[in-house]
Amino acid sequence: LHISFVKLSRGYKYSTRQQNSLIKGVYPASPSSWLFVAIGILATMYMQSDPSMGLITKIQQHLPLRVHNGNVTLVFSTLLWLSLILALRFCLKLLLSYHQWMFEKHGRMSNTTKVWVPLVRLLSSRKPLLYSYQSSLPHLPVPAIQDTVSRYLESVRPLLTDPEFKRMSDLANEFESNLGNRLQRYLKLKALWATNYVSDWWEEYVYLRSRGPIMVNSNYYGMDFLYVTPTSVQAARAGNTITALLLYRRKVNREELKPSRVPGTVIPLCAAQCERMFNTTRTPGVETDVLQHWLDSEFVAVYHRGRYFRLWVYRAGRLLSPREIEDQIQRILDDASPPLPGEEKLGALTAGDRIPWAQMRKQYFSSGVNKRSLDIIERAAFFVTLDDEEQGMRGDDPEGNLDRYAKSLLHGKCYDRWFDKSFSVVIYKNGKSGLNAEHSWADAPTVAHLWEYTLATDAFQLGYTEDGHCKGDVEPSLPQPQRLVWNIPAEVQAQVSSSLAVAQALADDVDCHVFPFREFGKGRIKKCRVSPDAFIQISLQLAYYRDRGGFCLTYEASMTRLFREGRTETVRSCSNESCAFITALESGETEEECRRLFQLASERHQNLYRMAMTGAGIDRHLFCLYVVSKYLGVESPFLKEVLSEPWRLSTSQTPVQQMNLFDLKNHPDFISLGGGFGPVADDGYGVSYIIVGEDMVNFHVSSKYSCSQTVSNVSVIQTQKARMFILALSILKCWFYAD
Questions:
Q1: Total Cβ atoms within 10 A of residue 193
Q2: Coil, strand or helix: which one is 48?
Q3: In 633-678, alpha helices (H)
Q4: Among 305, 483, 532, 580, which is disulfide-ready with 522 (CB 3.0 to 4.6 Å)?
């Protein structure tokens, strides 16, 4: 009976995938539209009219004589239907290639855009599946090389002295007129056959070929609610969280999620990053890592107090209830068996340098019990850590505890996470939760969408009983979670210790500070007709200027998911206009002049963001030209210098994408903290922020203790080790001149 249920479940999954493939394959038409076309053609043929203008007769001449005329008509109807689908898809792609609407001021829509909007709505009127728009999304265009070079020079002008800018201009002009044109031709050839001329190289060379630790340097984290913990029972929180994640996976597999769109519009965003969200692992290699994805997995890997377990989450094709998963988790928590020799800190291999991990994996994990256990972890839907610590904003030192909470999610103990998994969920002893995500397979907005759904489903849909346990019944015959078995030789244990030392040094050097800014939010900012993102970015520039006494190259992540397989582009937020405003503000210019310059800086930032979103950014184009130069074996002093410039201020906004899931008016305490990441430069800051509701912005600031010039936590001013990073005060003063 069990085998029959499993086969039935697999058959249902297969049929669902086939059905979805057909539906999205004919989008924006529908499969049923074939019937209308066929009936229409048959009706006209019955009325002695030939809508094919002789094509049906020609088709019949090339078929056997026994083929009925009606069958030939159906063949023609099918060909006509497919032609109409291709025509509709081509029209939709053309419409989605139009981006001028993004640059028009609010309330001043051009006639072209007025015609464009209803056409897009018309072709998008059918209810799409998650991947329905993929074949209709335009390809990322290759910018003209002179445009990219010109924009680059404009971006670095406020950062260079006159002699430095003259030297850089000469390098840029020499590159543009000689080697640049040659590299551009090769890049355009790639763009003709590649779905996206950036994404595959970006994934490989920026992420997978990096040989340093991915912990802190690449992986990022997401936090739980700020003020609320739905239950203090660790096993119960794990039960609901795992269930919510698996329900989300079911929606992804069935393509029941609505495609993400540009907020406030019907314009779809690429959904390709969702494909590798679950059942995915980054496996190490000597020269490059590889992303491995499995079609399905019916279990998760669990770590608790140095032991690894396989937890089956399906029984005869049925997803276990939250209460059943809680019961299984409790069995793991109650298991008093000690770790096997070398097992406790084995995860440190994924936290250290990649080459030693690749060598150990090939030599000691390619056969026997080690291979079987490692396969279970890598093939698991995701990784779960049952942490024996308590975290969150609590106790007598809520601010300090919040910082420790962020550090715990970013790196933990350096061995109690499996950093290679697409994401690892952490459930703390007091019921607090969070996740750590690997970066190569997707960017933060995709993971944020998953985490928003998980938190909302956990708290508002699944819920808990009065005593804090999960709801549902328990099948008494469920098998025990399977303890993984290892045979870790001394050589591997020595490498584990070495990798742990590298990871621990990296973790100890990271300074994290998380703080909710409650003075005001996007509600007040929008009243003065200023973009909240531009406002915050200019405030960060001001904060850095006061902290370091100058300006720096600033990275803000922008998405390019308007295009197929798009990922990110850089917005160079430090512009001539923002520097002019800050200089005027700090030198005591009049309030009227500061207001004027602030407005110019805000508009400039918004324009830079729109250009990055629409494929007219700077950095991805220059990066790809650099890759081409390496393939051809030629050196470019200009590209080499551009790509070696440090991003001392690396910033990113975590978008809130599913506001319908959170009713902040009736449940104001259910506020998401967002997430953060480590600093990109050794002497710089990593700043992540999330705009929550109308009156709050949560900030995550990271830096390195080893740099005496950067301090993330404002309270460190008492030690006089460095000038403090006065972010909140900068925002307030910035607002004073913007209001």
A1: 7
A2: coil
A3: 637-643
A4: 532
> Cα(302)–Cα(384) distance, rounded to whole angstroms?
5
The active-site residue out of 139, 411, 439, 700 is 439
User: In this predicted model, which residue has the larger pLDDT, 730 or 118?
Assistant: 118
The residue assigned the tokens 């960017």 is 443
Rounded-to-integer distance, Cα 438 and Cα 281, Å = 9
Distance CA 522, CA 694 (A): 5
Structure tokens at 426: 């952490």
Buried b (16+ CB within 10 A) or exposed e, 652-681: bbbbbbeeebbebeeeeebbbbbbbbbbbb
What is the residue-wise DSSP string for 217-265?
TT-EEEE-BSS--S-S-HHHHHHHHHHHHHHHHHHHHTT-SPPPB-TTS
Question: Rounded to an integer, what distance in angstroms lies between the CA atom of residue 554 and that of residue 575?
Answer: 9
Q: How far apart are CA 95 and CA 562, in angstroms?
A: 12
Q: In sequence order, what are the beta bridge partners of 699?
A: 515, 689
Full-model pTM: 0.92
d(Cα 505, Cα 618) in Å, to the nearest integer? 35
Q: Would you call the peptide bond into 118 cis, given omega within 30 degrees of 0 as the criterion? A: no
Coil/strand/helix, residue 304? strand
d(CA 230, CA 238): 11
Q: Which domains does the chain have, with CATH numbers?
A: 28-127 (no CATH), 145-194+616-645 (1.10.275.20), 204-340+380-485 (3.30.559.70), 514-614+646-739 (3.30.559.10)
Report the 10 Å Cβ neighbour count for 303: 27
- Residue environment code for 530-557, b if the CB has 16+ CB neighbours within 10 A, otherwise e: bbbbbbbbbbbbbbbbbbbeebbbbbbb
Q: What is the C-alpha to C-alpha distance for residues 201 and 191, in angstroms, rounded to an integer?
A: 12
Q: Which residues pair with 436 in a beta bridge?
A: 221, 424
Interval 344-354: pLDDT, tens:
999 999 999 99
* Structure tokens, 67: 């083929």
Phi, psi of 453 (to 5 degrees): -60, -45
How far is C-alpha 692 from the chain's CA centre? 18
Is residue 544 within 8 A of residue 530, CB to CB? The reply is: no
CB 230 within 8 A of CB 464: yes
- Joined together, the tokens standing for residue 250 give 């079911």
User: pLDDT band for position 736 (50/70/90)?
Assistant: low
d(CA 685, CA 702): 6
713 DSSP assignment: -
The distance of Cα 57 from the centroid of its chain, to the nearest Å, equals 54
Is 439 catalytic? The answer is yes
- Consecutive H or E run containing 568: strand 568-572
Handedness of CA 141, 144, 148, 150 (dihedral sign): negative
- Alpha helices, H only, 365-431: 368-379, 398-411
Structure tokens at 609: 């963001």
Burial class for 617, CB neighbours closer than 10 Å (0-12, 13-18, 19+): buried
Cα–Cα distances in Å, from 732 out to 112, 520, 723?
A: 40, 9, 19
pLDDT tens profile 690-716: 998 888 888 999 999 998 777 655 444
Crossing angle of helices 179-193/145-156, nearest 10°? 120
- Cα 571 from Cα 608, distance rounded (Å): 6
Planar angle of CA 574, 575, 580, nearest 5 degrees: 105
Q: What is the rounded distance in angstroms from the CA atom of residue 529 to the CA atom of residue 717?
A: 35
pLDDT for 5-19, tens place per residue? 445 555 666 677 788
Residue found by looking up tokens 């007219």 in the block: 616
Is residue 275 predicted with pLDDT exceeding 90? yes
Give the C-alpha separation, 134 to 24, whole Å. Answer: 9
The answer to whether 436 touches 451, Cβ cutoff 8 Å, is no
